[in-house]
Amino acid sequence: MEMEIDSVEYRLSCVLRGHEDDVRGICICGESGIATSSRDRTVRLWVADSDAKHKYSLSKTLAGHTSFVGPLAWIAPSDQFPEGAIVSGGMDTQVLLWNVQTGEIVERMKGHQYQVTGLAVDDNGDIISSSMDCILRRWRKGQAVEFWEAHSVAVQTVIKLSSGEFLTGSSDSTMKLWRGRTCLHTFTGHSDTVRGLALMPGIGVLSASHDCTVKLWALTGQVLMEMVGHTSLVYSVAAHSSGLVASGSEDRFLKIWKDGVCVQSIEHPGCVWDVKFLENGDVVTACSDGVVRVWTRQNDRLADPQETEAYLDQLSQYKLSRKTVGGLKLTDLPGLEALQVPGTIDGQTMVVREGDNGVAYSWNTKQSQWDKIGEVVDGPDDASNGQVYNGTRYDFVFDVDIGDGLPIRKLPYNRSENPYEVADKWLVKENLPLTFREQVVEFILQNSGQKTFTPDPSFRDPYTGANAYVPGESSFSSGSIAEDESQDVDSRYRALVAVGSLILDGAVKSIAIDFDVQSIAKDAKLSKDAKISEVAADIENLIKTK
């Protein structure tokens, strides 16, 4: 299809509002419209507006997942599905097949242990799914006909090639080419998680990575081109028959690439989770602000001036809410009206908000006025000084999305800390199952730039007295606090008191299965030390009353 371009750059074409939380995935459904997935647990189908062809209206809302929805795949219309079908994967570990005509679930596929991360449809109608559980599964008529471990760590994405083979991307920073269950080739070149894949027609495949780059590969595994420009994790990539490439990132930018060069960057009021090209060359973006946007290079498809102005206002307000000056959040600064209040001592300084800037003033007692000093700016090291959380400065304060419609949790972390210890304490504090420990540790290592971590053999778990957790091994053993004679009595006593505190905080109910509090207390009661056996008895009583 020839695309007539009227302008050089992409501009806003239309806005699709309806989701109630982050929009995580996009699927182009042929001529049937656009499907989107969200943290709001729904899949929504948007169809072209009959009155204005460049606009879309909500056609169907598909609700059936019990947690946030991620990857989507399209099945073209057939005798079985006259209007086509949509496949969706979720944080709830399920793969669902939807009949677009009826809006009903046709098949509910269960088998993955963790979040479903990628979907592809084979020529024979089989569905291929990837998951954080490292497994690829092939589904036929709702049943898993085969599955295998594709990578040793989480599989993040899967796509089908025109040859019928499949390509996977993983948190191990590699991609693998599969023919059936046989790995034909392992692609190496990224230095971090491979998050997204896309076909580059006639050339090879594109990959998006947490190492902030996009790469173009030949199917032999050779890197043909590297696209550098994003300043944070790259989540998605797409290609168009015109040769253009689009990518979306945590840095909040949609970037358009031509021959490896970034020709345009479009800022969003939130991270760009997914990008897709329409056949006509328009680009669709999924943003964490819950909005789907379509961008065009054709003048006859541009958004109304009012809609464009509203978008620019939203972007300005978002940037203003995040801006800091001298380490201070701009929106927290007082306005110019604060200068109406006299200072208390000569030389007293005050920073006030003037437009989008912070300006410093000094109180002049002699003149009884505030003298302007100048604009306050962040120093070159401000961004590297970490973040403050609950009054303490950390190297990182991560936003953790645990799904199920629950709010984002904050996870503070310092590079000097043991990530396993941080994960254990955080899970207990947040009232979450300790079975998520390995996933949290992997999340910490990936997002802090630490590729690997060797547990310190001298590390003692603050709750059980055991050594640091090692994947594949249990870090909790019944009675470890009572039996571990390498710890002094006071240390074991403090550990038990900590357990008791967790029970009082209400954490015991959700962690009792993984963190065997009852067994620990029972064995600790047998301790020869009176204060350990006494506090163990108290813990048993607390458990009974909770």
UniProtKB/TrEMBL annotation:
<feature type="repeat" description="WD">
    <location>
        <begin position="187"/>
        <end position="217"/>
    </location>
</feature>
<dbReference type="InterPro" id="IPR019775">
    <property type="entry name" value="WD40_repeat_CS"/>
</dbReference>
<dbReference type="InterPro" id="IPR036322">
    <property type="entry name" value="WD40_repeat_dom_sf"/>
</dbReference>
<dbReference type="Pfam" id="PF09070">
    <property type="entry name" value="PFU"/>
</dbReference>
<keyword id="KW-0677">Repeat</keyword>
<protein>
    <submittedName>
        <fullName>Phospholipase A-2-activating</fullName>
    </submittedName>
</protein>
<dbReference type="GO" id="GO:0005634">
    <property type="term" value="C:nucleus"/>
</dbReference>
<feature type="repeat" description="WD">
    <location>
        <begin position="62"/>
        <end position="108"/>
    </location>
</feature>
<dbReference type="InterPro" id="IPR011989">
    <property type="entry name" value="ARM-like"/>
</dbReference>
<keyword id="KW-0963">Cytoplasm</keyword>
<dbReference type="InterPro" id="IPR015943">
    <property type="entry name" value="WD40/YVTN_repeat-like_dom_sf"/>
</dbReference>
<dbReference type="InterPro" id="IPR015155">
    <property type="entry name" value="PFU"/>
</dbReference>
<dbReference type="InterPro" id="IPR001680">
    <property type="entry name" value="WD40_rpt"/>
</dbReference>
<dbReference type="GO" id="GO:0005737">
    <property type="term" value="C:cytoplasm"/>
</dbReference>
<dbReference type="InterPro" id="IPR038122">
    <property type="entry name" value="PFU_sf"/>
</dbReference>
<dbReference type="GO" id="GO:0043161">
    <property type="term" value="P:proteasome-mediated ubiquitin-dependent protein catabolic process"/>
</dbReference>
<dbReference type="Pfam" id="PF00400">
    <property type="entry name" value="WD40"/>
</dbReference>
<dbReference type="GO" id="GO:0043130">
    <property type="term" value="F:ubiquitin binding"/>
</dbReference>
<feature type="repeat" description="WD">
    <location>
        <begin position="16"/>
        <end position="46"/>
    </location>
</feature>
<dbReference type="GO" id="GO:0010992">
    <property type="term" value="P:ubiquitin recycling"/>
</dbReference>
<keyword id="KW-0853">WD repeat</keyword>
<feature type="repeat" description="WD">
    <location>
        <begin position="227"/>
        <end position="258"/>
    </location>
</feature>
<feature type="domain" description="PFU">
    <location>
        <begin position="362"/>
        <end position="458"/>
    </location>
</feature>
